[in-house]
C-alpha cells in the first residue's frame, strides 16, 4: 500500500491573506481528515497569486499559475474549495478551471492526459444557496480535465436563506458536514491509492 500520497487544496476565496476565510476552514478540515489516512497536504490561497486570465499553461508577464499547476501535478488528490457568490463559484474558482484546461493537452509517455490517475474532491461554503449546482458544474469540469471523482466526493455548508452567517463563525462543525468530510476523505484516499497502483490504460 502506498503511504506517500499527497494532497493540495486550492482555496478559491476572494479574500487575500491574512483575511479570515470560511473556505480556508473547510479546506483545513478536509486536509486534517486526509492526514488520518496517511496523506500529507498543503493549502494554496489562489487569490494571493497573480493568476492571469487565459487557457494556456503560462500566460507570461509574471503569471504565477505555472507554480500552482506544478503543485497540482505533484499531488495525488486535489481539494477544490470555493465560496458561493450569487449562486455560483467564485471568480477565482472559475479562473482555476479555465487555467486547468491547458492540462487536457498534456500527456504522459503512454498518451494519457496528465491528470489521469489523480483524484478530485470539492468543498463549498456560503450564506446563500447554490452548492449543488456548484458541485455539479465543478465535477463536470474536473472530470473533463481528467480527474477522477470518488463516491460522495463533495461536502458543503449553506446557511439558511436571508439570514447570513459564515462557516468560519460556527462554534462547532455540524454533524452532517463532519460525517460528509469523513466519508469524502476516506473514499478519496482509497481511490487515490488504487489509482496509484492501477493507472488507467494508455492511449
UniProtKB/TrEMBL annotation:
Domain of life of the organism encoding this protein: Bacteria
Residue ranges annotated for the NADPH-dependent FMN reductase-like domain, each copy included: 19-154
Molecular function GO terms recorded: oxidoreductase activity
The protein, known as: Flavodoxin family protein
Amino acid at each position: 500500500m502506498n503511504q506517500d500520497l499527497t494532497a493540495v487544496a486550492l482555496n478559491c476565496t476572494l479574500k487575500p491573506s491574512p483575511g479570515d476565510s470560511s473556505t480556508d476552514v473547510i479546506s483545513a478540515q478536509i486536509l486534517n481528515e486526509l492526514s488520518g489516512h496517511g496523506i500529507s497536504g498543503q493549502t494554496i490561497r489562489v487569490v494571493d497569486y497573480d493568476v492571469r486570465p487565459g487557457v494556456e499553461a503560462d500566460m507570461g508577464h509574471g503569471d504565477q499559475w505555472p507554480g500552482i499547476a506544478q503543485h497540482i501535478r505533484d499531488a495525488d488528490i486535489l481539494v477544490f474549495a470555493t465560496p458561493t457568490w450569487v449562486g455560483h463559484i467564485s471568480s477565482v474558482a472559475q479562473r482555476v478551471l479555465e487555467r486547468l484546461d491547458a492540462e487536457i493537452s498534456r500527456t504522459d509517455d503512454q498518451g494519457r492526459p496528465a491528470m489521469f490517475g489523480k483524484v478530485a474532491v470539492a468543498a463549498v461554503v456560503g450564506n446563500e444557496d447554490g452548492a449543488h449546482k456548484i458541485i455539479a458544474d465543478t465535477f463536470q469540469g474536473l472530470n473533463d480535465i481528467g480527474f477522477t471523482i470518488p463516491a460522495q466526493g463533495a461536502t458543503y455548508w449553506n446557511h439558511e436563506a436571508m439570514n447570513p452567517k459564515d462557516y468560519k463563525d460556527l462554534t462547532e462543525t455540524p454533524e452532517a458536514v463532519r460525517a460528509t468530510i469523513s466519508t469524502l476523505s476516506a473514499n478519496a484516499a482509497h481511490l487515490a491509492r488504487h489509482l496509484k497502483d492501477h493507472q488507467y490504460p494508455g492511449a
